[in-house]
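QA checklist item 7 of 12: single-chain prediction sanity check.
[x] sequence parsed
[x] length recorded as 189
[x] structure emitted
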Amino acid sequence: MRELTYYVAVSLDGFIAGPEGQFDAFVFEGDHMTAINTRFADAIPTSFAEALGIVQDRSTFDTVLMGWNTYAVGLPAMPSPYGHLRQVVFTRRDPDPVDGLDFTDRDPIDVVRDLKAEDGDGIWLCGGGALAASLGGEIDRLVLKVNPVLFGDGIPLFGRSGYAPAAFTRTAATAFDSGVTLLEYRRGA
């Protein structure tokens, strides 16, 4: 069965973006970039990967899930940011169709369960925090790029979902000289 991985950058105080969606305080230069971009090449916007000469073979992820606000970060410049992947955007809006994108207002849990039942590779939950909160029970793996910065306020890693403990076991931790730490967890104690 396919796995849902929440792979995202996060501040030390647990925010994936600032109050207005800002993410420019994250560390985008340093020794972590090559290692992370090589391992998670499928999670780089297609046009960026092409410009950098990075091969995206869909071996890690073949599907990406985004909430509207996460998707809208790239608009209007990138209407199909991950064209090499199957892209699902959860929204209550009625956007104009975009080739390669599936806009849906279906329950995210139902969509993920349907995707997990299909053949394929990994499913990447790109963001945002509210979508992650709604899918908390479906997340099989967490891969957190913990950045050495405090936001103080913003969009929490899991939205404002309320108290619902779930145990994860750390499977890897890689610290980089840049101050970024890649933490990996699998569901279960």
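[x] summary fact logged: The first strand starts at residue 4 and ends at 11.
[ ] second reviewer sign-off
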